[in-house]
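Holo prediction. Input below; ligand is zinc ion.
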Amino acid sequence: MAIRVRDVLQVLEQIAPSAFALPGDPIGLQVGSPDLEVERLMVALDADPRTVTKAIYHGCQLLVTHHPLLYRPLNTIRYDEPVGSAVQQLCAVRMGHIAVHTNWDCAPGGINDALAEQVGLEEVRPFGSGAQVQSFKVVTFVPPEYVDTVLDRMAAEGAGEIGLYRRCAFYHLGTGTYEPQPGAKPFQGAVGRREHADEMRLEVLVPAHRLQAVIHAMLQAHPYEEVAYDVYPLHTSQSYPLGRVGRLPRPMRTDELRHYLAEQLSNPHLRFYGKPGALIRTLAVIGGSGGDYLGEAHAVHADALLTGEVRHHHTWESWARDIVLFEGGHRETELPGMRALAQRLREQKKILQVEVLFEESV
Ligand SMILES: [Zn+2]
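Structure of the complex:
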């Protein structure tokens, strides 16, 4: 069966849920149609005219990039301007374009996890502001001996995650009552007879983007023919921070760390702002433009922040906050994450029979 753009979007929704995108970020399908057939796709950082040309040359029908091509409402699509030229090229060959931007920054395994891995951080944890995803409480009523089975299946789909804790739930024993009608095949009891059964009321927290998958898993695991369950929208949300912070493989002075990071990111021009001789044990990372996270990195006791590019005021802010700031290159700090995305798509071979190319776009 032909794979279409909508199938790729579905897989990407699992890997980089759109709920993780920061407000106003124009992620998703930017050019094309969900119906377009895809045999080969290219993952890259940008949908710039050179990358689009390469995708056309390699016979791709879809381009998946980190940066959105269309950021602001366009007044014109001029073929002599870079954005208009890329749009024109995409349309001329009916190629689709999808952006996975801040949703891939925040997602587990995304841009910032890949960057942390690239520079060898250990004991990595999220930090800072990021996506806020609405929470739901799912409640179901389970025979006591099935609580673990049902909870395991729900947790496997992302229910019951609170901070660094997994499989969080609450349950208590009660009595469920029902009267099976002709044709029913009750798990416990008999047709026409009023039944009173021991049941556990099982309550689990579920973020909005996992709700359908969790309910599906619960229905699959539950032994009842008809499953009673409630879904409550909550006034709270779950936070999915953008940044990652972790311990360096060994403490390093600023200049030694500069050499180390330059090597890890293949960027000899990597530079730093702040104290030259500082001893750095804990490093925070944000791919791309993460200078605004200096304060939040300092608040989690990071000795330094590595990001892609900084603005002038970040340079004196690093001195003022006494935290070293490394500028590793926008491209260099985001490429590991896009390479990881290409790999994740390749691993979906069973449901996504497409060839996945990766373009570094020098
Ligand atoms: Zn970026």
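Residues 66-67, 288, 330, 334 surround zinc ion (CB under 6 Å). That is the main takeaway for now.
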